[in-house]
Amino acid sequence: MAGPEVTDWLLDSDPALRWQVERDLLHLPAETWARTRARVATEGFGARLLALQDPDGQWAGGAFFPAGFDFDGPEARAGQPWTATTWSLNALREWGVDASVLGDTAARLEASSRWEYDDLPYWGGEVDCCINSWTLSNGLWLGADVDGIVDWFLEHRLPDGGWNCEWVDGSTRSSFASTLNTLKGLLDHERVTGDTERTRAARRGGEEYLLSRGLYRRLSTGEPFAPWATHLAYPFRAFYSVLNAADYFRAASLQDGTPPDERMADAVEKIRAARRPDGTWLQERRHAGRVWFEVDAPAGEPSRWLTFYATRVLEWWDARVTT
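Request: output the structure for the sequence above.
Response:
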């Protein structure tokens, strides 16, 4: 559990983070954290990002990339830009902005936004698992018709139980990142619609893919699948880490009413080992790419967001021995 100094430091933050600290770490009454959550749309990060929305409902003039992005230029080689519509919607949703604040955004995007891939309509998704998962979550949040994406995921699950965004290039083996991002969308679908029968088997299979690998190890050798899998950075964006995965399993466990899976133990201890003596976690890196504005500490400095997520995961995990 976070000590009072860390808790006070976390509370001294943007409303987008503060309300979650109040709810998940301090367990304050709903009316208290709900008041803070309502401020996200009018103060700080949320208000700033809402003000950047284009009249047609998009951000930066594009679905996944800013309008006019040069896919062959130096910026493309530097990294994915994080300013376009999908990334902006992801942030607002994750920060807790109420869908009503965005008004008719879903309808405006249906009319105006097309994917850079084959000019496909926005709410229909495209061929990338991660993009489709975010579109599913954002559509459920904003009330768009994204039901077809659910069927798409069921049809594109790979034989080993997970998903891979590179299936379109012939990949037949699942990816840690693609599988995790897909699971988040499927979990949101169950949470919002209450329909557990349709996707439960697929979700369980994807979870088994990650759990059987301890969240970060190759099934064949037991070695970490990548050195960066245990490195922590916020925002999570599209990137995989043991903390990102553990936070998903916390959410799934709470929704399903099931205990933590002991196969996560080693990954959770990796998270615990990164905690500094003062109870904080460091930002290990910033992902390259254009942003509207920074929302967390630079690399090498204590991160409020990582400290919140890691503390929340550890409290959930450690509670298993007392229940």
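The first strand starts at residue 281 and ends at 282.
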